[in-house]
Structure formats: C-alpha cells, structure tokens
Design brief:
The structure is a single chain. The chain has 3 helices and 25 strands. The relative contact order is 0.20. The protein folds into 3 domains: 11-43; 60-65 and 272-343, Immunoglobulins (Immunoglobulin-like, Sandwich), CATH 2.60.40.10; 66-270, Jelly Rolls, CATH 2.60.120. The radius of gyration is 21 Å and the shape is elongated. It is mainly beta. Helix content is 9%, strand content 50%.
C-alpha cells in the first residue's frame, strides 16, 4: 500500500511501492499466525451447505452457487466469529480489535504511535473459480494527523508451504484530509514483497467513504475489480504467481492514530452461470431487480436457460420471470447466486 511511499512511476502510469507497512505487518504475523490458519484450512473446507435464502415455490434449488456469506447485519459473539476467521496483526495487545454489530464487522486499531494493523482472515479457502465481494467502509472524515487504510485482499493460502505472500488488494487510503482508492497486487516470498499499483483514483476530500468491492482473479494472469457496478480495472496479461486456493483478508492499517475498517455483505460465489431447468424450449428467462434487468437468456432444446450474471450482482435478491408462448410466471424475491441450479415446478 502507500505507507510510507517510495515510488517509481513509469509508462502506463504504473507505480511500484517498496517497503509498505501492509506487507511488513502481514509478514510479521506469518510466523505467529499462518501456521494456525493453514493447519485449520488443511483440516477443513467451506461448509457443505450455505443457506441460500428464499426459493419461492414451486421453484426448487437443486444446487447452490453460494460458497460463503456473512452479511454482518447483526451482533455476533467474538467466539462465533472465530469459527470462520483468524484475527491477528502487527498491533500490540489491546490495540487491534474486531467486533460484529448490526452495522457491520469493524476491524480497527486504537490510537497509537507509529504503524499498526489488524485483520480478519477467512479460515477456509476457495478456488480461483469464484467471485469475491464485500462492502468496505472507512471513517466519515479523512485522516489528518496520520494515515488510515481500509483493505480488502485475496491472498494465497499456501504461504506456509511455499513462502509466497502474494495477493490482490483493494484499498482506501486516507491522509492529509484526502482519500483515494487503489487496486494492486503483491509479489513476495517471506523475506520481502513488492506491491504494484495497477489503478488509483485521484486524491479527494470527498472520496466515497464506502464502496461495494468485487474481485475475480485466477491467480496467474487475470484480475478484474469493480467498485460498485463500475469496473475500474481488468487485465489478463499479468504475471501474478498467486498460488491457489485463496483466502480473504478484511484489514485495517493506521499510522499515529486510531482507525477502523467496516465490512458488510461479504460473500463468495461460484463464477458460473445461474441455470434454470425444466422450462419450455425457447422460453425467455429474466432476472429483474428494481425494474432493472440483471441478466436474461433463452432456454435451449433441453429446457435449460443459463444466465451470465455481472460479477458485482452475482449474489442478491430479485424476481425471476419465465415467459414462453403459452405462459408467463414470476418467482418473486428469489435469493440467488451465480452457480445456482434452479428447477421450475
């Protein structure tokens, strides 16, 4: 990230930042925490069934594409959170903290001198064939007396095996009363790491305090990132070397001040089409939310329609409309995810 910044700007407005605290503090906790994370991952997997939400009758969901979800819209005991996340960082005991309330998961550091960071990392890992999403927020006022960073990262879960600390990162960086958002990725092996910033917004006093962040990556050459519904960066020509599977990090960094990152609507879904089966050949299928079409498709000869969902809308609640020459049926308020297999009754 940008704390402190030592930059070389070259063609294509690509900046390399060396010595980032975000890299250093994550490296510091590698010795202390990664063994626990990796061992836990090796002995477990994502829950076999993730509650997919409402399926209006007579529609039947034969498979769910929802890999993991935490809405963070209600209080959750810390001990319950520890069933799904490991909490750690460079902050001194009592400085880093995390708690889940009705307004989100707050990951923060209390007032302190110098740099301190804290994170929640998913215990379980997922394959590259998924979409990662969260709504990430920073405090309402930009930092003035120090630097604050809200961070969402998708990192290799293989650090303990091969020493790689490679990851894709999306961050909001605030200092001197201004804030910008950035997208980048890190390359490194235990002893050192570099972050390449691939995209960065201008510094602004009125930069958004909250953004829905969506990420896809294969860990090899491809990254795509959306803020809200806007795709801010995409490339398929990178040399990422991020060994799968991946874990999500919900993070905060602060220099010379307290700072907090807030996370809501965290989910992981399969990067696959939503299938609707058992409908007439040629029937049109449309997923609609708030009067806006999310995706649509026609059923093939076997009576299956495959809807390609935009990544930021890979999980949600919408109306499913199935229309043929003979009938039209609306399934109201369907909780859906990319990769779902739905069978019409």
């Amino acid at each position: 990230m940008t704390s402190p910044v030592y930059a070389r700007v070259g063609p294509g407005v690509v900046a390399w930042f060396r010595g980032h605290r975000i890299l250093r503090w994550r490296l510091e906790v590698t010795v202390l925490a990664v063994a626990m994370v990796v061992v836990t991952y090796a002995l477990s997997s994502w829950p076999g069934t993730v509650g997919p939400g409402r399926t209006p009758a007579p529609l039947h969901r034969s498979a769910s594409g929802l890999v993991a979800t935490d809405s963070f819209d209600r209080p959750v005991p810390y001990r319950t959170l520890e069933d799904r996340y490991v909490f750690n960082g460079s902050a001194q005991p009592g400085t880093g903290y995390a708690y889940a309330s009705a307004t989100g998961l707050d990951v923060g550091v209390k007032p302190h001198a110098g740099w301190a960071g804290w994170f929640a990392v998913t215990i379980h890992a997922a394959s590259p064939q998924v979409v990662w999403h969260t709504v990430m927020s920073r405090p309402g006022r930009p930092s003035t007396g120090g630097t604050g960073e809200a961070v969402f990262a998708v990192q290799t879960a293989t650090t303990q095996h091969n020493g790689a600390i490679n990851y894709v990162v999306v961050a909001s960086v605030s200092r001197n009363g201004l804030t910008h958002w950035l997208v980048g990725y890190a390359h490194g092996e235990v002893a050192d790491a570099d972050t390449e910033v691939l995209w960065q917004s201008p510094d602004r006093a009125d930069s958004p305090t909250s953004e829905p962040v969506t990420v896809t990556t294969d860990g090899r050459h491809q990254i795509a990132v959306w803020l809200g519904d806007q795709e801010v960066y995409r490339s398929s020509d990178l040399q990422l070397d991020i060994p799968p599977p991946f874990q999500a990090y919900l993070e905060v960094q602060g220099q010379n001040e307290g700072y907090v990152s807030r996370f809501q609507d965290f989910w992981i879904a399969r990067a696959a089409a939503l299938q609707v089966r058992g409908i007439p050949a040629g029937a049109s299928v449309t997923l609609v939310h708030g009067g806006q079409t999310i995706a649509s498709a026609s059923a093939d000869r076997e009576g299956t329609a495959r809807l390609a969902l935009p990544a930021p809308q890979a999980v949600g609640v919408a109306d499913l409309v199935v229309a043929s020459a003979r009938s039209r049926r609306t399934y109201d308020q369907l909780s859906y995810a990319a990769g779902d297999v739905l069978v019409a009754g």
